[in-house]
Amino acid sequence: MATNSEIQQLNIQSTLTNVLQVLPERNNTILMLRYGIGSFNKRATLESIGRQYNITRERVRQIEEASYNKVTNSDEYVQLQPIFDVIIRAIEEHGGVATEEYLIDNLITSEKDVPYLLLVLAISDQLVKMKETENHKAGWALSKVHIRNTINVLAGLSEYIKVQDQPVASDTLLSVATQEYTQDMKIDLNDQTLEKILSISKIIKRSPYGMWGLHSWSSVAPRGVRDKALLVCENHKKPLHFREIAALIDKSPFQQFSEKRTHPQTVHNELIKNKDHFVRVGLGLYVLKKWGYKPGTVKDVIVDILKKQGDSGLHKDDIITKVLEQRSVKNSTVLLNLQNKQVFKKGENNRYYLA
Fold this sequence. Notes:
By secondary structure, this protein is mainly α. Helices cover about 55% and strands about 10% of the residues. The longest helix has 21 residues, at about 145-165. The radius of gyration is 31 Å and the shape is elongated. It comes from Candidatus Spechtbacteria bacterium SB0662_bin_43.
């Protein structure tokens, strides 16, 4: 496995500085300006360099490209090969395509080395640049074929997730990817390699609870208290008190880097306000409506139960059982509601009907 210690041992700064000596002074300086190298600690734009040298933006770009070619065709270029070998191995382990972010995180230990790595990548004639789009991040690949295959895989998996209309478990997505795309990727797909491939996408994202979904989904990237409460309830799959929901939000993966605490009353207000998503089933207890819970009071639940029974009515004990499936209340609360003679009537053998 390629490691950052290897790049550090190869001393990327001094190696690249030596190689760049093959360039004319102006070309050398322009590359250093473009990448924020040496005393230039901030990357300069083509426009700003053009103003400095009194040349056009396009001319700066041409000088930059010509400089890459001159270095690549020089005898000194071979000095960079050990560094290229480490980078290539890291990209191979990533499925043939890796984001710049991944290469920086895994190959560089000092921020001062970052611009040197980026310039080495740009100079290499053994790698292909993958330009950033609205669908995927910028990166580097072993070939154009690797880029095309990776983009196809990401498009296929994002479409699969979209059709499911809900986050997908890692093992399910791995199964789909293995069946459909192993030949294209030319690597052994497993949880680690699949995660590396998916990390290139801007569309697919891992949810706080480990599922894969679309970045635009609130279940994957929760924004407000409502989204977070939905995720917490979905993950725990049982009635929760609003204070418990607030505490679970603060303990959840999506809140781990936030110092701001979630106020229970704020959660309660969101639960009350969002009746399309939450149903109160007891004193401060809430569930998700999509689990089959009906909104309303205990009386409303009994009415709904008896409507489904029609003229046959239902025994008192059966009514209590069915109400307790929908509400967390005492038996006496159900019996008290059944005494409402304007809504319910009692027949023989403790059977109840709608009035």
